[in-house]
């Protein structure tokens, strides 16, 4: 492994550059460094880091949302999809054929700046009682939890769930099946 300087990334149309303030380490970062067998999609040289919080540094052309402004604090949703296919249109983005994860199949947040689609930003309160370092603990575990609830359990609006061991990443044990009870 070598350390190297990378050129400053420039946002393309519809993208935003985030100045990274915190990047949590996720188990995925360990797996990527161990070079997962059969995964040729990891770009080299590679920048890991999927759990990112920071502030907007630059906007690419076509970013229309007035709330997305330079200096705004954000959390970066780690799962990145095309936003246009049939799966994306019905909020099943993890089934998108172009789905990838920040810091895995694309350059991540273990850097000063990272580029992501504008739709992957979650605006944070300007004066949050939680520091950006705390917010960085959420992105990928949220993606996993959402995927399990929406795609595996098929949770519907108005339903309630009981999540056992909610204080840890799916009970802090190897993931096989979530311990969920859907109250219907």
What keywords describe this structure?
184 residues, alpha+beta, Quinone Oxidoreductase, Chain A, domain 1, 5-stranded antiparallel β-sheet, two-stranded antiparallel sheet, 4 helices, 9 strands, 23% strand, disordered C terminus
Structure commentary:
By secondary structure, this protein is of the alpha+beta class. Helices cover 16% and strands 23% of the residues. It has helices spanning 27-33, 86-89, 132-135, 139-152; strands at residues 15-24, 51-59, 73-76, 79-80, 100-101, 113-117, 121-123, 160-163, 180-183. It is globular. The model is unreliable at 170-184 (pLDDT under 50).
Q: From the helix content, strand content and strand pairing, which structural class follows?
A: alpha+beta
Cα-atom Rg, whole angstroms? 17 Å
Task: Report how far apart the termini are.
Answer: 51 Å
> What fold name stands as the CATH topology of the domain at 15-136?
Quinone Oxidoreductase, Chain A, domain 1
Q: Which architecture of the domain at 15-136 per CATH?
A: Alpha-Beta Complex
Portion of residues in helices?
A: 10-25%
Shape: globular
Q: Count of DSSP helices?
A: 4
* Structure summary, number of beta strands: 9
**What string, H for helix and E for strand, traces the elements in order?**
EHEEEHEEEHHEE
Could you tell me the strand content as a percent range? 15-25%
Low-confidence stretches: 170-184
Biggest β-sheet: count, sense, barrel?
Answer: 5 strands, antiparallel
CATH superfamily of the domain at 15-136: Medium-chain alcohol dehydrogenases, catalytic domain
The CATH first-level class of the domain at 15-136 comes to: Alpha Beta
Average predicted local confidence, pLDDT: 83
Strand order of the largest sheet: 6-1-2-3-7
